[in-house]
């Protein structure tokens, strides 16, 4: 008798998909009939897995973790891992192995924000709905399969970020003080702002502020402030007759040369080129 029943689709992405998209390597469902260890290591792949029913164990990064219905796993398969169902409560799993453009960066950001590779979302339906749609897509292979697969994989990763909050209960918002800091940047972007000033204004250590801001928003305070200034500068470039020098000062840049360099780095063109094209 088979130890498990599986329904899987293996895929070989095109060279274009390998370069431009997130792509599926393997996707499927598995129902265990009896305990069976599945072990892998050194795979150039990421695995998202959710337990639909039953329970078992995941061994990852040298530790064994009990997992049960409703749990989700998002791991880097370059690390050794293994999973097996219990004999008493055999499990049913849905999973996808994937890789591609941006996969490494997504996962590095995810782990850098101290989000666990094992989590239990409030609802698994958003995950299983996308896995079901992705599985059907890979089986039927429509003309836009790889582009649509990229969308579903991006949705799954986004759900991992939004449904697994780092180091606290499953709430949807960063700490109130960080929200206040971000609102302050939006309202005072045209002024001189430094980390020390924010630290004093909001009564928080500048080191803690910098670390928590990056963890919660995925961007440093300095880069966020520059992005806001450039966004406001774009509006003035398009909808006003102000000179580049005037716009630089209005948007909080100390001088026009720095503004032009920052704008070109962000947009790949100078402010005047942007004004002409848009």
Please provide a written account of the structure.
The protein is of the alpha+beta class. The protein has helices at residues 15-20, 103-112, 125-140, 145-163, 176-188, 195-202, 206-217, 221-239, 244-250, 256-267, 271-277; strands at residues 4-10, 22-32, 38-40, 46-53, 55-60, 63-68, 72-76, 81-85, 92-100, 118-119. A six-stranded antiparallel β-sheet has the order 1-2-9-4-7-10. It has a four-stranded antiparallel β-sheet with strand order 3-8-5-6, with no helix packed on it.
What order do the helices and strands come in, and which of them pair?
Layout: E1 4-10, H1 15-20, E2 22-32, E3 38-40, E4 46-53, E5 55-60, E6 63-68, E7 72-76, E8 81-85, E9 92-100, H2 103-112, E10 118-119, H3 125-140, H4 145-163, H5 176-188, H6 195-202, H7 206-217, H8 221-239, H9 244-250, H10 256-267, H11 271-277
Antiparallel strand pairs: 1-2, 2-9, 3-8, 4-7, 4-9, 5-6, 5-8, 7-10
Helix pairs in contact: 3-4
- Tally of separate domains: 2
CATH topology tier name of the largest domain? Jelly Rolls
What helical percentage do the residues reach?
40-55%
- Tally of helical segments: 11
The gross shape turns out to be elongated
Largest pleated sheet: 6 strands, antiparallel
- Topology pattern, helix = H, strand = E: EHEEEEEEEEHEHHHHHHHHH
How far apart the termini lie comes to: 66 Å
Rounded to an integer in angstroms, the radius of gyration calculated over CA atoms is 24 Å
How much of the sequence is in beta strands? 15-25%
The second-level CATH architecture of the largest domain is: Sandwich
Q: Kindly report the name of the CATH homologous superfamily of the largest domain.
A: Regulatory protein AraC
**What top-tier CATH class of the largest domain fits best?**
Mainly Beta
Low-confidence stretches: 168-172
How would you write the strand order of the largest sheet? 1-2-9-4-7-10
Task: Count the beta strands.
Answer: 10
